[in-house]
Task: structure prediction
Amino acid sequence: VSPVTEELVRPEELPEVDINSAKFISEPWSVHEIADARGVVRSDRGLEVYTYKGCQQLFTNKALAIGFDEMYRATGFPDGPVFTSAVESINNLEGERHLALRKTFAQFFTPDRVASLRPVIRNIVESLARDAEQATTCDVMALAGRVPSTLFAHLVGAPASDAPFLQHCSEELLKVFLMDAGNHDGVERAYADLSEYVADIISERERAPGDDVVSHLLAAEGEGVIGREDVIYNTTALLRASTDTTMTQIGNTVALLVEHRDIWLGIGAGQVDVGRAVMESVRLRPGAWRILRVAREPGAVLGIEVSAGTCLFGLVPAAHRDPDVFTEPHRFDAEREAPKPTLNWGQGRHFCLGRPVAVIEMEEVVSVLASRWPRMEPVGAIQSTGRPDVDRITELTVEIAGPEA
Ligand code: HEM
Result:
């Protein structure tokens, strides 16, 4: 937060947006029409930053906090183990402890390890697709959810049969992002169940270390780089960071691609670059709708005078359609020249450490399904959450064979 200077505007002077309006929920990029010079509007939850450059500045601003404290308090956890495990996890920590954790995770997710995960992920997807082919229709979100949760089981050295339990915990825990006290009990139960599970895994890995992420964290503890509580909090954090997020993005990507049949068919036939198509779908329909930052002290952010406690939301879907950055921002163009990096993995010191893994998961789901089910068609309307915080498909059942061409 920079010191306050003369030219700053006060939040009350900014245009206001109703984040619960149908227009904002269905077309969050419509805030560009308001065209405030600062690229910021106010809402009843704080300030909404909607330009690409503004989001970059927001995410990389070292004076702003990540805001897990605020999210957990809003969900009814002002303190206690649920609160502590989250605010003291890699996602929310700063300084030396954050760096030690980032380094530890980066030494596990090396480029070689990430490359070695591709065949593992492909096997998971192929096996789920084969199972789905026993029926004529497939619930794509169920399949999407099973990919990252099975991969998480693999990463911690647990059996694939743990995936439904892990998926359920992740889904509940991530509800803190909705900042709604109504989710308190579900989050608390999921945390209690997951803590017990993580404690068992840690004891097992202490007895018999393997080539898994928990053994890797325990080795870093042995070297004095991190502490025991870091191992516990960050095994939980890894589940929260990797599972529901990836399921959401896989769903959004598949939903968008089935609406662009030519691209779906092109991927299936090997004529369209799956990596580019996936990234363009992330641009147009990012699962991470908004990324939070919080001002802990009064000062200036993006030319606005902010008070301590102000929440600033980086509106990723709006930034991804910033007309100053993307030509024809609403067009699905799988061959964009020099595409700008998407922002839904953040940017700066907390940039997502699992981005390459998430991208492989998306690519494998899309390429396996597009080649096995080129004529796949949605049954009924595709439904989504319709909330101003996360854009997630809630209903995407497809007929596997689709109509004859
Ligand atoms: C499409 C799926 C995913 C999305 C949208 C996503 C998004 C994000 C975002 C927005 C952040 C915070 C960035 C910030 O505050 O600036 C983050 C952090 C993180 N993500 Fe992901 N993520 C995904 C998948 C994964 C996967 C698969 C893993 C691990 C295998 C992972 C591990 C992490 C970790 C460890 C952090 C904390 C980094 C830090 O704070 O230093 N994520 N992710």
Remarks:
- The mean pLDDT is 94.
- Residues 156 and 246 are 17 Å apart (CA to CA).
- DSSP finds 16 helices and twelve strands in the chain.
- The first strand starts at residue 40 and ends at 43.
